[in-house]
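Please fill in the sequence for the structure shown.

STRUCTURE ENCODING:
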């Protein structure tokens, strides 16, 4: 994975094609100069490590303590721990000042599966696969300048996603995709 080595356990999402789609964009794209870079739902930390390799100070956030620990260990293993701070929080971005310009990368749980059915929090996205995504968009809408990259699936309710983005004041465009038999993965850019 682009020379990045990550480990985790059964409680941490293992990077897959969706993670690589986002990581590839982070590594190969000219990213704007922002006050803060955020890996939202950091999991193993692969996206934060990609940002850290570019010497961009990154705040890695996850609700899962196991993911936060894996992110810390993996950022140290990849020699970028000086560029990454990790927080375990259910409060998302509410603790940050609204006047910051931020770039957010997110590979959220996007499959339309109810977490109450015992499904994994790492990939079960609730109704329409958008539970985490809608919370993220609502949190991002209060910032003055935002650029976000979000991975979603053709199984996700993409019409509702686009509607929520527009209502929150974001411009949205598809920047990349992977096509598999039966499923497409999309990388969307949101700007405000």
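FILLED IN BY: designer on duty
SEQUENCE:
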């Amino acid at each position: 994975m682009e020379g990045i080595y990550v480990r985790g356990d059964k409680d941490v999402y293992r990077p897959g094609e969706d993670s690589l789609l986002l990581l590839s964009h982070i590594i190969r794209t000219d990213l704007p100069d922002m006050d803060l870079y955020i890996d939202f739902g950091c999991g193993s930390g692969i996206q934060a490590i990609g940002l850290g390799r570019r010497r961009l100070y990154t705040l890695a956030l996850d609700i899962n303590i196991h993911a936060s620990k894996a992110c810390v260990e993996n950022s140290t293993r990849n020699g970028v721990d000086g560029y990454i701070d990790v927080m375990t929080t259910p409060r998302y971005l509410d603790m940050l000042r609204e006047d910051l310009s931020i770039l957010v990368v997110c590979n959220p749980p996007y499959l339309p599966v109810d977490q109450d059915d015992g499904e994994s929090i790492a990939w079960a996205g609730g109704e329409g696969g958008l539970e985490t995504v809608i919370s993220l968009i609502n949190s991002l809408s209060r910032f003055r300048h935002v650029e976000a990259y979000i991975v979603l699936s053709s199984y996700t309710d993409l019409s509702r996603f686009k509607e929520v983005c527009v209502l929150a004041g974001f411009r949205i465009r598809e920047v990349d995709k992977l096509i598999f038999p039966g499923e497409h993965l999309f990388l969307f850019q949101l700007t405000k």
